[in-house]
Amino acid sequence: MRVNVLERRPVPGGTLVYLEPQGGEPHDRVFTNLDGPDTQIYATESTPEGNRHTRPFLDTQTRFAERGEPPGFELISNTKLCWCLRELIVSVSYSDEYGNHKEKIVIRSDGTPKGRPFETVAWGLSPKFHYDSVYAVSLENGDWIRER
User: Fold this and answer.
1) What is the tally of structural domains in the chain?
2) pLDDT at 124 over 80
3) For residue range 36-76, what is the model confidence (pLDDT) as tens digits?
4) How much is the average pLDDT of 92-105?
5) What φ, ψ does residue 98 adopt, rounded to 5°?
6) Among 136, 63, 55, 48, which Cα is nearest to 93's?
7) pTM score, two decimals?
8) Are 116 and 40 in contact (CB under 8 A)?
9) Between the CA of residue 54 and those of 10, 46, 47, 51, 72, what are the distances in Å?
């Protein structure tokens, strides 16, 4: 599983409003860094000694899904350099009555290969991100919380 960056736009200015991820079914939290050449999706897990270990997602554990069943994961994409338009590429292997198959599936923001791309915008509280102000939206009451 990897990310394909379709376009790198300049980081926008003005005001940034964001929401923290919301609840749902238990799922894997995975990440990728859009700034480097490695577009692989990674997962972080704890070792028995309490250390953190990063590994490519799906490399050590196969996921099975029935036809139409959505496998749950949260993909966190990080960038410090751009407003990135991206899509997810999933390499799939499966067997059926006609043999073994391998294919690449493209997933965009609406779950199809032709929809609008996902968008990730560089942001943070550092002045280098050029936002005039940054607000978080409270999940408890919907209030805007000014962070900068």
Assistant:
1) 1
2) no
3) 888 888 887 777 787 777 777 776 566 666 666 666 677 88
4) 88
5) -100, 0
6) 63
7) 0.72
8) no
9) 30, 9, 10, 10, 19
- What tokens were used for 104? 């690449």
CA dist 48 → 4, 10, 58 (Å): 34, 42, 20
Range from 3-17, 22-36, 89-103, 125-139 carrying the lowest mean pLDDT: 125-139
Amino acid letter for position 20: E
**Token couple for 33:** 């860094």
Query: Exposed, middle or buried, 68 (CB in 10 Å: 0-12/13-18/19+)?
Result: exposed
Strands 118-121 and 83-96: antiparallel
Q: Domain span at residue 39?
A: 2-146
Give me the DSSP letters along 51-89: -EEEEETTSSS-----TTPPPPEEEEEE-SS-EEEEEEE
Determine the number of helices (DSSP H) and then strands (DSSP E) in the chain: 0, 11
